[in-house]
Amino acid sequence: xxxxxxxxxxxxxxxxxxxxxxxxxxxxxxxxxxxxxxxxxxxxxxxxxxxxxxxxxxxxxxxxxxxxxxxxxxxxxxxxxxxxxxxxxxxxxxxxxxxxxxxxxxxxxxxxxxxxxxxxxxxxxxxxxxxxxxxxxxxxxxxxxxxxxxxxxxxxxxxxxxxxxxxxxxxxxxxxxxxxxxxxxxxxxxxxxxxxxxxxxxxxxxxxxxxxxxxxxxxxxxxxxxxxxxxxxxxxxxxxxxxxxxxxxxxxxxxxxxxxxxxxxxxxxxxxxxxxxxxxxxxxxxxxxxxxxxxxxxxxxxxxxxxxxxxxxxxxxxxxxxxxxxxxxxxxxxxxxxxxxxxxxxxxxxxxxxxxxxxxxxxxxxxxxxxxxxxxxxxxxxxxxxxxxxxxxxxxxxxxxxxxxxxxxxxxxxxxxxxxxxxxxxxxxxxxxxxxxxxxxxxxxxxxxxxxxxxxxxxxxxxxxxxxxxxxxxxxxxxxxxxxxxxxxxxxxxxxxxxxxxxxxxxxxxxxxxxxxxxxxxxxxxxxxxxxxxxxxxxxxxxxxxxxxxxxxxxxxxxxxxxxxxxxxxxxxxxxxxxxxxxxxxxxxxxxxxxxxxxxxxxxxxxxxxxxxxxxxxxxxxxxxxxxxxxxxxxxxxxxxxxxxxxxx
Amino acid sequence: xxxxxxxxxxxxxxxxxxxxxxxxxxxxxxxxxxxxxxxxxxxxxxxxxxxxxxxxxxxxxxxxxxxxxxxxxxxxxxxxxxxxxxxxxxxxxxxxxxxxxxxxxxxxxxxxxxxxxxxxxxxxxxxxxxxxxxxxxxxxxxxxxxxxxxxxxxxxxxxxxxxxxxxxxxxxxxxxxxxxxxxxxxxxxxxxxxxxxxxxxxxxxxxxxxxxxxxxxxxxxxxxxxxxxxxxxxxxxxxxxxxxxxxxxxxxxxxxxxxxxxxxxxxxxxxxxxxxxxxxxxxxxxxxx
Lengths: 649, 289
Prior knowledge:
Chain A is mostly helical.
């Protein structure tokens, strides 16, 4: 027999040889080495770039020639240096050297025996990654929320300019993109990573090292976004339409590097989630027994995977226009501003569903537990998600009705946009049908269902107005649009995420959430939210354009109310955050299954052990076997037994 | 139930439909006689009655600065009004179920999962069909309405069918609109190419705008006349309107265009034909329409 392939029957299979201690170089890398290496490489890139620059040579706009390339190189060096320093390239390098990973290596990388320090390392355990995502999404939401307070302060002070207009435009854009990134990850990141593998009965994600890669890429993407404010800012809203974006100072490069890096992160995370869900479900978990939350995560991941590259390329082109003088978006040189708008909105609209779908699915998953009822019509829910995934890919032009790009495109895209309300209605029907005749266990996660459905009704109806081209001719670019998408992204997205996080909080942290304080925060934020965006609808109807810092006196009252509401949201969110943080540190310990739920993640112990289950479970039914037979059906059966009486009527 | 299903017959052995099932009309009456159904229908009716006035409220807010000043704006307001009325029942039924869930079907609190389980309703083909049917009909209505209205306002804009039942090809004013950071310039090519920072136009005359930009993307929004189109560098976009109300209305930029975007606004003065003629002469123009 040759040496290259040996068949071992029932015998000992030779394992890869352990070189050195388990983990190898990863024993020495952590966020600290990552930060040091990232900063050092960035400084080197900056200095070398500075030496290569033709100092004092200005281009037509009076800007130092080469500054864009220098800053872009600095940011790219930061990302590459950080990833190298934290050990992201250790795996491929080891393969190149012919060292395969041993079981001990894999366990070390999953964080075995490293205590709390594993949260600061390139750790592959999906539960660690889930926590990392939870913390970074809360940090980003805090930053975005703080910027929102600044925006509302400016708009509430109708008598003066609080901020320099350039800085105001920068905080609008930064608020927008920080919140979009935070909302994309807030459910899929913490819960998709922590809960989904346990929920489907797996020991980890399909690609644990890609899981770590996706998180640390996201981490590396944040500093360029924040530092853009110090380099002149991205003054163009989160959409950064060209050629206005080309006028912005070098801070814009921070935004572009962030988007390019974040798109890699999202793509990797999506591939990982889809593969995990498709291939690693427990025995017996057929597709009609998969929990609906898992369906929502896979739907959202598909949209992210397919459409994020469009956004990424819109920014790659914009960066190359800026750095190497290509002309993708420069009309005088054969470029097109409409090309940018199309690429941007090809992701820009599916992204709304990337945000809303996981939150909605999480609420469906938890509401059955608090209603003690099966999910109403699982199949319609799946059809709803499938319909959204399909139709969301052909609605993007409704953001471009008023661009003059293709006036006739208004007809088909009005059709597709209004059609997507049908699968979205499926989801509302499933939730209403599940609520129907259920006795509500009024805990905080369940109350989020009521809050979100209210917001969805408002957001849905105002969305119907905007899908209509003639109405959009009045509303486009007005505060009405701002209020509408905040109702969908924040009202239906963030409040759902708050409910979902409080539901899985006991499993993730091992402690019960302080619901008394949490509810005070939740409902304060909810009330402030209604005031803020309710009056913003009025400002929009009156004709107030968005992204302005001064406006007619006619809009004063609604803006004052909005600002009061926004501060109320801020207070409520801080109270909710306080509840999360204090409960995490010192609340009562949670039982393994405090809600009496039937999905798999509640059947394993709390805190969840390293490989989730002592023995992998086998699934025999869907997780919705709650409830008792319908008493009315029993009456009907009795009636049909006494056949004559009914027929006679 | 499919006959080629080779799974274990777990679902196939449900009891057969009783042949003496009550007829549909009886079952509907029985369903309607249930207390919670009646209460929800009453709550929904009340909410509908409360929501319908919002249609007038919406129009009130839109008219606060003097709209509508063109038939396009009238059509837009009509659409807003109709959509609000149409949405009201769907909104009402949703909110009624939410309200009744909190008030009618009962609540439990406490730390332990409730012992009492709710009815295990996994599906209801009639309800599903009804919901999907209703929302599909509503969506179809929205599409048909939207397409019709879009064709109507396009006709009002471009004059492919005469507004005010007059042949408008001869009696039309072309205006070249140029956006730049951060002001608007209006040129009247047929009036000896006079230019002005404020738009002055005669009432009841079709206007046709050629819109472009010198630098970045702006958006030409004549608020009370209900027209809006991007001003793009390197391209000319078109829109049009026939003002039907005298007065001064707002023109705003509706696309973020940099530092002083907020201040990029001006006015449109809709005046009588005589006033317009004298304005044109004053500005040095010769030919008027």
